Amino acid sequence: CYLMEGLLDEMNKTFLKGMNKVQLEEAGTLLHNPDVVTYLEAAFAYAAVWSLGGMNINEKNNDSRRRFNSWWKVKHKKDVEYKSSDPKKPFDVFSFFPDQKGLMKEWDSVVPDYKAGANARLVTQVFVPTDETLRVTRIVDLLCKTAYTPGAQPNRPGREQCWGVMLVGGAGTGKTAMLENYLRNETDEKTVYKTINLNFYTDAPALKDILESAITKRQGRTFGPPVPKRLIYYIDDINMQEVDKYDTQSTSELIRQHMDYGVWYDTKALDQKTIVDTSYVSSMNPKAGSFTINPRLQSHFTTIGCMMPSKATLTGIFKQILTFHMREFKEEVRNMGERMVDACIDIHSRVTDKFLPSSVKFHYLFNMRELGKLFQGVCRSEKTKSTPTFMLHLFEHECMRVYHDRLLSKEDIVSFNKEIANIKNKYFVEEVRAAKEADKAAEEKAAAAAGGDGKAVVKREDEPVIFTTFEQGGGTLYLRSPGMSQLRLVLDSKLEEYNEENAAMDLVLFGMAMEHVTRIVRIVEQDRGNALLVGVGGSGKQSLSRLASKGICGYEVFQIKVTQTYREADLKTDLQTLYKKTGEKNQQVSFLLTDAQIVDDKWLVYINDTLSSGYVPDLFPPEDLEGICGSLRSAAKAEGYADDPTALMDFFISRVRKNLHIILCFSPVGDVMRQRCRKFPGLINCTEIDWFHP
Question: CB count, 10 Å around CB of 354?
């Protein structure tokens, strides 16, 4: 019904557009118009499909959307004319929508071209429109425009409920990206939004404070956004809060109370507050948090299932990104683009199918984020240095960093290495042959240069593939290391320089230690690069992190000093300092935090918020934020941001996320790390993992 309301509003605007009062009276009922009848039939079919089948998804053990599609094809396909651009293409009822004339068109026929922005190199932050994003955004738009706002008069007689939209799907399916893209770019100028990330320790009082931070007093006990604005609350991870002993979640009950009655209560003054001109959208991962939410709250939301994109969709997304990146490369390298895309998607698919999460391997979560990180690494190539052999080695290196470094057991590592070899031989036959010939020539040259001094020449294929930016003259070029011996000389020099300016570290840089240093450097030198280093005590996580951050990247390294009097308020003060350095002063800082320093798990609330969105509720007083935004006005204007508080705050947070690199050093011993990662999914989802194997 609510979907039909939105479609009927658009129908009225289409068929009654431009008519004056006399013409409207002469038009009479629209049902006499055959075009209107055609539109109504198509609109009803569209609304029925998404209201009845929109929450269904296709997964490995659940193909409910496919079954719904088959049922609709048999029962109702003949009721509406579906026109496909390719008659041989399998019928998918979710791929169609009614246009203004009531014709069922395919979404892929109206997908806009990808336009690369200033941050095109940050593949994990790029939003590429697809038919899936368009269809979900369309449903969200229809429901948000007709949503009844609690505390206000219903949009239509008889409608007394507040209605919201909820996207449900696993991690990395694009729920947050689609909703934030819609709220930021697809809404009108009278619509503002507030993003709220819930976590394990969020309770109703804390949520109410965040909700009230976006509204102001109007008159009496009535509150809302500034007139004539309309506010949409976006609740991310709505099911993350801890379930209490009564099997309830106080955050869910507060939201439900507001949606039911349009009010909540001031617990200090014991007064009722009426909240108007607000509505809700939300997202949740059914495989995290409490897994479900209160059915009474769920009943207020239209639920839309979000799935991992199909292989064809993934190919379309990353082909556009890689084609744009390689537009000025040599032709022989550009010709590898399509094969590179297929190889990346193939290895991701194999890893996803083969390495499944378990109670011990809880971090085996491979989704769109990992695939984006893989392509982001490939897009660090430069046109001046790229050759087919170079791109082959870069592909192998990024696969190792994104997937291999997460693996826990030796058996998994051996299995993954075999998959990489199979992928290379499947997609890059000529490049593999050329690489072997080049390695052989380099070995012969090295042997000739060594002469008869008795030193054995290390085979190139026996050495790990390592890419760095600091080894060959510094700069930003991402190049393959000439070899471990050369890398040792450079790192020893960097360590010596570090020890001269800082407290000396007595490190012996053996082979594996050098590899870990390059991995940490690779993570933190990228924008929004955060690391999760996992290893037993004494494995060198902190020392190597300091060498990588301070000694090589030149960042300031910050570490909290936990004492008997160090409390949560002190942590907030330290975070304020870090935010000002990275966001206001535009300095690069590595925040090094070990599990031993986390006295209370509630401290991880701030770390999780910083990792996932950058917004930490109540971190700064309002007057401090005004001063920060004022100092950033000229810099934000130069970057194309509008001169308003919301845009300035977004600019401030974007700088923080770009310049603040969190390095978490955790021990896998016991159950503490697993419990923390379950409570705070950002520790896994928003970091790159490097496992220090003994």
Answer: 13
CB 325 within 8 A of CB 120: yes
CA distance 27 to 30: 7
What single-letter DSSP state applies at residue 184?
Answer: I
Of the candidates 606, 521, 495, the residue with the CA atom closest to the CA atom of residue 201 = 606
Tokens of 162: 């507040």
Listing DSSP states for 553-617 in one string gives S--EEE-----TT--HHHHHHHHHHHHIIIIIS---EEEEEEGGG--SGGGHHHHHHHHHTS--T
Give the 3-state secondary structure of residue 45: helix
Going from the C-alpha of 321 to that of each of 31, 118, 379, the distances in angstroms are 47, 13, 9
- Tens of pLDDT, residue by residue over 623-668, are 898 899 899 999 999 988 888 888 898 899 999 999 999 999 999 9
Decide: 95 and 107 in contact? Cβ < 8 Å: yes
Burial class for 291, CB neighbours closer than 10 Å (0-12, 13-18, 19+): exposed
pTM: 0.88
Using CA atoms of 578, 579, 581, 583 in order, give the dihedral in degrees to the nearest 10: 150
Between 476 and 560, the higher pLDDT residue: 560
Adjacent-strand bridge partners of 557: 590
Supply φ then ψ for residue 458, to 5 degrees: -75, 130
pLDDT tens across 484-493, in order? 888 999 999 9
Mean pLDDT of 227-237: 89
> Which amino acid belongs to residue 255?
I
In this structure, are residues 416 and 424 in contact, taking their beta carbons and an 8 Å threshold? no
Q: How far apart are CA 579 and CA 569, in angstroms?
A: 15
| SS3 assignment for 236-275 | ECCCCCCCCCCCCCHHHHHHHHHHHHCEEEECCCCEEEEE
Per-residue pLDDT tens digits for 586-599: 999 999 999 989 98
Pairing of strands 230-236, 191-197: parallel
DSSP letter at 531 equals E
- Please name which of 469, 668, 670 lies closest in space to residue 552, comparing C-alpha atoms: 469
Residue 602: Cβ-neighbour burial (10 angstroms; 0-12, 13-18, 19+) = middle
Q: Which residues pair with 167 in a beta bridge?
A: 283, 304
Q: Give 112-121 pLDDT, tens digit per residue.
A: 877 766 565 6
The closest alpha carbon to 478, from 388, 393, 546, belongs to 393
User: How far is the C-alpha of 690 from the C-alpha of 521, rounded, in Å?
Assistant: 12
Interacting residues of 682 by C-beta distance below 8 A, sequence separation 6+ = 607, 608, 609, 611, 612
> CA angle, 375 as apex, 372 and 376 as ends, to 5°?
80
- Residue 396, judged by CB atoms within 10 A of its CB (0-12, 13-18, 19+), counts as buried
d(CA 567, CA 450): 60
For 454, residues 6+ apart whose C-beta sits below 8 A from its C-beta are none
First-to-final CA distance of the chain: 60
CA distances from 161 to 147, 154, 230 (A): 9, 8, 17
